[in-house]
Design a protein that fits this description.
alpha+beta; three-stranded antiparallel beta sheet; 14 strands; 17% strand
Amino acid sequence: GGVQYIQENQRTKPYEPLANRTVGYPFKDYRSVVGIEGAYDEELRGVEGYRLERKIRDDIWMPISDASEIEPEDGQDVITTLDLDLQDVAHSELYKQLSIHEAHHGTVVLMEVKTGKVKAIANLSRNEDGSYSEDYNYAVGESIEPGSTFKLATVMALLEDGLVHPGDLVDIGKGETSYYDHLVIDSQHGVSGEITVQRAFEVSSNVGITKICNENYKGKPERFINRLYDMGLNQKLGVEIRGEGVPDIKYPDNELWSGISLPMMSMGYELRMTPLQILAFYNAVANDGKMVKPVFMEEIRSHGKVVKRGGTEVLNNHICSRETLAQVKKMLEGVVENGTARNLSNTHYKIAGKTG
């Protein structure tokens, strides 16, 4: 007789909703396939305990004896690479910008250059009431057309193949050109006529970038695609979080290849990459050409003792030559100092980047 206590365990998130989807969550049976929880479920799970019980009546059970119990073993602790302060800023700033523009969804990822450690990752989707919450990991899983952010890869291929120089001229006319029946136009940036390749990149001229790519690779598009493949842009990163989107950069022998594929791909269309894959590419430029895999696990501990540390994995030691790297770094700085990202320029430190 008396009271029988039955222990039920529950995992809680003290910082919800920060990185909610990336941290992940267990399902009712404590088997998770989502986020870091899913990636390290085996380490987190531990070993179940058992005890013999006798059914007294209906759904009432009575333990037979303590001697028959097998104690459960605690799971290990996974320490993430996320920085709580940076995560808080990333989440709140993304929330603010999405609200201003009433966007459907957005993502922010902050990665440490040398190590690949992800310090902050936020993914927010718009709810019916206009609020935002984390219900899908767009950074890892959404493979989309990257648009103008891909122009960096195009310019790098041209420079690496020795086909153009940042100071070369390209005539963008009044900001319009056609490829067969497809019209390509520039956004309103107040630039026309002959401009340098550097300037075309700074103002993100669709006409300028497609022209130099089409003129130099027309008739030999496989040379352009091979250069992209050499950079590793057609390969998944292999991050530990499940559900990574597959990059899609088609080859000229693909049945979907057409006469406009080359210029379209040069400005980030007719191909697909995830935001995390684009980030790893840009990070490689910052990392002097070395592409590293984004990682989310700092270390695994058992009762306070470190049993495993997360290491840096190099995916590509040299995505291009040092000369090309030096040139594109200047071009990326030019985007912020003189181009489409002038609003980010400041007197405290230099920023290199690309709008899209």
